């Protein structure tokens, strides 16, 4: 067990940090600390330009193989990059779906032509992706997707019809990957396909969803005979579920330490307020602040265990608890922030509905325990996969 | 950065698990509980002779293994899991106390004794009102030839078995550390009757016990006591993680057998979600345990500050204390009616979790330590 990074890793850290300090300046200084969950709707054009700058510096897709423009960075280096990125106030990445989900999926399951067509655009920060998984009737039960993909008579293209929901950054994206049913006679995990679909076409309509924060970062995406070339199904028809599930395992938690840096900034702000407004002397608040401190450090050591685990790609016990841990921690922090602020927690930045950072934290963290697998689904996963408890009998879908 | 065990550490873990599975089942625990000392002395002899775990933290020059806290917590986690009725944690605590005395020849001799399996108890506190310096209940007065000690120390982890004791005593406003033999005149060492019977605790009464000046190992041991308490919290955290893990495992095993409404109750989400919450607490405490053990090892070589050690120990004590009690308590609930019977082991873990949770400071007291660091003027972590 070794808590410290190696000298070579620390040198890499210096490189990353120097580059970020030099480049998150001038026009880009306004987007420091902006974007990301709960703040995804701001500075989109500037953040797109930032993707280009990152790409020029060689800082997109660093975990990809060098053959595809990456750095073949080790897990440690990826962790360090994410940490330094967060420390420097790097804005929420509009390119993260392509880099962390589409790219690794294509590298693992894509055809040579698909890699040639799509990887360079992601690496260059020029083509943005969004995710087409959830549907109104397929949330926790993702395999209930009803969006259909039908190969037309010519055999040249698929026609996609249906509705996706909770799609972040849909209106900014060039492409969406879509899980759709290729065999209408099949149910559940069978008969699904994984498609790469251009967003800018008549068959695709986007409608933003206004959230409790008054802002909109999620969308509904409607497909009405949308076109997808027959070259753009990943794998074979019927393999969609396997590919979709593989994709969820790619991220390997390298961004978790960066995420924790953002959490630390939020916790520090709450602690600072508590010290100044006197609530820091209230015994109940003191207990909760200490709990928050412990919880965040627990996330860190959970991540380090997770990242130090074997390279077999299987999900370890500490990886399985991670989502449940961070989402609950973050939601509790939002409430703690409100309690520390007391009566002032109500006062907004501006009329008509401009939330302060902590109000936004409080409201948007209610989503944390829902998206990406609700806390209840996470508990099912832990019980069934880590503890080997039986699955609940299923109803007819 | 590598937060995983080395091959040697993994081998140690396997050998501990293998040995305890074979030699320390629940029947052994219950026999020891019913015995006068509360300890399985044969098992202790066997461990000392064959496994040598008592020597983990004893430096090599004193005949020990010269390993660190990471190795100690690997062994103690399994001890907590099996409720192994031997005074290993006590020996580790005493070794850590003696290591604060650096190059003293007496400490060297005592450490060598620990490596041979001698029972040396740390008598540090009466635990009224606290486990730290303010709770020290023995007073030392200097005499012509040495010292006279009077007062009480409780919760001595060697129970009533120690042949020799390290006694923390007040000297005016300072703290001193003394050694004395358990059979000396004026010394009364006995076992405290405790609700948790898996972990015997001793109580020491001293009435004008005279010792020579040689027996005073330190005249200024207050800071060292704080460090030893923090190291002990890390060792205790390992037992708590083991206790929490066993509570989870036994509960999952039980609900997987128990059938109601035509299904095993393990298939109901109401049960599964409780089990998931238990695992979350076990793994979270385990992550903090490994971190704290690493910090402890750094502190032993002065590579980590006493504040870092205190913070790590407080975080672990809060997390592991809560985890053990939550898992054992929830474990009883998942066992249903049989959970409250004497027959099932879950009640043993429940009592053990309670006693460990309070030992060396409750989780809420540990959180207050952290709150002071974060929120008070001059706090070491204040923003």
Structure in words:
By secondary structure, chain A is α+β, with helices and mostly antiparallel strands. Chain A has eleven helices and eight strands. Chain A folds into three domains: 7-94, Orthogonal Bundle (Butyryl-Coa Dehydrogenase, subunit A, domain 1); 129-238, Butyryl-CoA Dehydrogenase, subunit A, domain 2; 256-386, Butyryl-CoA Dehydrogenase, subunit A, domain 3. Helices cover 44% and strands 13% of the residues of chain A. In chain A, the strands form two sheets. A four-stranded mixed beta sheet of chain A has the order 1-4-5-8. In chain A, strands 2-3-7-6 form a four-stranded antiparallel beta sheet, with no helix packed on it. The radius of gyration of chain A is 22 Å and the shape is globular. The mean pLDDT of chain A is 92. Chain B has helices at residues 7-23, 26-34, 41-51, 69-82, 88-99, 105-115, 222-257, 269-300, 306-335, 346-358, 363-375, and strands at residues 120-123, 138-142, 146-156, 164-171, 174-181, 187-191, 202-212, 216-218, 259-260, 263-264. The two termini of chain B are 27 Å apart. In chain B, α5 (88-99) packs antiparallel against α7. Chain B has three domains: 7-117, Butyryl-Coa Dehydrogenase, subunit A, domain 1 (Orthogonal Bundle); 121-218, Beta Barrel (Butyryl-CoA Dehydrogenase, subunit A, domain 2), CATH 2.40.110; 222-375, Butyryl-CoA Dehydrogenase, subunit A, domain 3 (Up-down Bundle), CATH 1.20.140.10. With 383 residues, chain B is of the alpha+beta class. The radius of gyration of chain B is 21 Å and the shape is globular. In chain B, the strands form three sheets. In chain B, strands 1-4-5-8 form a four-stranded mixed beta sheet. A four-stranded antiparallel beta sheet of chain B has the order 2-3-7-6, with no helix packed on it. In chain B, strands 9-10 form a two-stranded antiparallel ribbon. Chains A and B meet through α7, α8, α9 and α11 of A and α7, β10, α8, α9 and α11 of B.
């Amino acid at each position: 067990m070794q808590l410290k990074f190696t000298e070579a890793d620390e040198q890499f850290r210096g490189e990353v940090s120097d580059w970020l300090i030099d480049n998150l300046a001038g026009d880009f200084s306004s987007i420091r600390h902006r974007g990301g969950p709960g703040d995804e709707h701001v500075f989109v054009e500037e953040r797109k330009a930032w993707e280009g700058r990152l790409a020029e510096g060689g800082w997109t897709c660093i975990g990809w193989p060098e053959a595809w423009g990456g750095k073949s960075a080790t897990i440690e280096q990826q962790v360090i990059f994410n940490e330094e990125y967060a420390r420097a106030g790097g804005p929420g990445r509009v390119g993260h779906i392509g880099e962390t989900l589409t790219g690794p999926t294509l590298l693992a399951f894509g055809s040579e032509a698909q890699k040639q067509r799509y990887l360079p655009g992601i690496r260059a920060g020029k083509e943005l992706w969004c995710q087409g998984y959830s549907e109104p009737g397929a949330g926790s039960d993702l395999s209930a997707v009803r969006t259909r993909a039908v190969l037309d008579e010519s055999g040249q293209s698929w026609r996609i019809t249906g509705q996706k929901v909770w799609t972040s950054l849909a209106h900014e994206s060039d492409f969406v990957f879509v899980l759709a049913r290729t065999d209408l006679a099949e149910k559940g995990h069978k008969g699904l396909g994984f498609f790469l679909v251009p967003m800018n076409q008549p068959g695709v309509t986007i409608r933003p969803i206004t959230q409790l924060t008054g802002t909109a970062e999620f969308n509904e995406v409607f497909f009405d005979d949308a076109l997808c070339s027959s070259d753009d199904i990943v794998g074979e028809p019927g393999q969609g579920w396997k590919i979709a599930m593989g994709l969820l395992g790619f991220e390997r938690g390298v961004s978790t330490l960066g995420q924790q840096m953002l959490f630390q900034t939020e916790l520090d702000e709450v602690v600072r307020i508590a010290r100044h407004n006197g609530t820091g002397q209230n015994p109940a608040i003191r207990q909760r602040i200490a709990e928050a401190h412990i919880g965040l450090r627990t996330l860190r050591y959970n991540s380090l265990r997770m990242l130090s685990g074997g390279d077999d790609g299987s999900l370890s016990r500490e990886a399985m608890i991670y989502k449940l841990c961070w989402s609950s921690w973050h939601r509790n922090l939002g409430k703690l922030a409100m309690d520390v602020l007391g009566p002032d927690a109500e006062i907004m930045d501006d009329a008509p509905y401009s939330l302060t950072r902590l109000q936004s934290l409080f409201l948007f963290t209610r989503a944390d325990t829902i998206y990406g697998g609700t806390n209840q689904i996470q508990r099912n996963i832990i019980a069934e996969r880590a503890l080997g408890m039986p699955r609940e009998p299923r109803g007819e879908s | 950065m590598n937060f995983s065990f080395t091959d040697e550490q993994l081998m140690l873990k396997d050998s501990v698990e293998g040995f305890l599975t074979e030699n320390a089942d629940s029947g052994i625990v219950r026999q020891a509980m019913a015995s006068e000392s509360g300890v399985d002395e044969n098992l202790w002899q066997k461990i000392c002779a064959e496994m040598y775990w008592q020597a983990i933290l004893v430096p090599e020059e004193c005949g020990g293994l010269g390993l660190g806290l990471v190795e100690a917590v690997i062994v103690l986690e399994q001890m907590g899991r099996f409720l192994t009725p031997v005074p290993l944690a006590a020996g580790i605590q005493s070794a850590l106390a003696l290591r604060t005395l650096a190059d003293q020849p007496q400490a060297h001799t005592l450490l060598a004794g620990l490596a041979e399996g001698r029972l040396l108890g740390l008598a540090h506190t009466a635990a009224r009102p606290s486990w730290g310096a303010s709770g020290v209940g023995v007073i030392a007065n200097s005499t012509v030839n040495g010292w006279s000690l009077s007062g009480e120390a409780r919760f001595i982890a060697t129970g009533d078995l120690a042949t020799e004791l390290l006694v923390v005593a007040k000297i005016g406003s300072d703290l001193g550390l003394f050694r004395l033999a358990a059979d000396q005149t004026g010394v009364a060492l006995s076992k405290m009757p405790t609700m948790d019977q898996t972990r015997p605790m001793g109580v020491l009464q001293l009435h004008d016990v005279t010792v020579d000046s040689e027996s005073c190992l330190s005249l200024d041991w207050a800071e060292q006591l704080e460090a030893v308490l923090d190291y002990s919290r890390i060792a205790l955290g390992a037992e708590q993680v083991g206790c929490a893990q066993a509570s989870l495992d036994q509960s999952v095993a039980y609900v997987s057998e128990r059938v109601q409404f035509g299904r095993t109750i393990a298939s109901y989400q109401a049960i599964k979600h409780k089990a998931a919450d238990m695992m979350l607490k076990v793994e979270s405490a385990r992550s903090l345990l490994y971190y704290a053990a690493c910090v402890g090892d750094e502190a032993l070589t002065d590579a980590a500050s006493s504040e870092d050690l205190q913070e790590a120990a407080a975080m672990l004590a809060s997390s592991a204390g809560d985890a053990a009690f939550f898992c054992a308590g929830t474990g009883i609930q998942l066992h249903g009616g049989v959970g409250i019977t004497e027959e099932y082991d879950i009640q043993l873990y429940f009592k053990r979790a309670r006693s460990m949770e309070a030992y060396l400071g409750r989780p809420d007291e540990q959180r207050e330590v952290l709150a002071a660091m974060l929120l008070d003027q001059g706090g070491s972590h204040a923003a």
